[in-house]
Amino acid sequence: MTPYLPGDSLLFAAGALAGAGLLDIGILLAVLILAAILGDTVNYWIGQTFEMRILTWRFSFVKREHLDKTREYFEKYGGVTIVLGRFMPFIRTFAPFLAGIGKMRYSWFLGYNVMGGSYGWAHS
Q1: Rounded Cα–Cα distance for residues 32 and 73 (Å)
Q2: Distance CA 34, CA 13 (A)
Q3: DSSP states of 25-87 as a string?
Q4: Nearest CA among 48, 64, 23, 63 for reference residue 105
Q5: Which residue of 19, 37, 99, 114 is 20 to 30 Å from 91, comparing CA positions?
Q6: pTM value > 0.85
Q7: For the segment 62-75, what is each residue's pLDDT rounded down to a tens digit?
Q8: Residue 55 lies in a domain
């Protein structure tokens, strides 16, 4: 849930350092893939925890039907959202969080998370 951190800028800087021979590209890719997967996993669990508490807030702007629609969406389009969302800046930040809120089955989320995280880096 940190959409304003300079992640893309850091990626470009790391790539430039690797291109200049100051960083090992193999180690860099392994670390970045792991960071992408772990970051989305943490975001998923934050969403899962957040969902349990959101309806108990006194001034909650979210209603039960919103959560039900989120669940329905992730049952139908969750995998596509997690994989393709990695390539869309705003979606990339919130998709794992919403997958947690939408109670997307964790084993499915993890599979799509690993697929998106490793495919994106392997083909960049």
Answers
A1: 29
A2: 18
A3: HHHHHHHHHHHHHHHHHHHHHHHHHHHHHHTTSTT----HHHHHHHHHHHHHHHHHHHHHHTT
A4: 48
A5: 19
A6: no
A7: 777 878 888 899 88
A8: yes
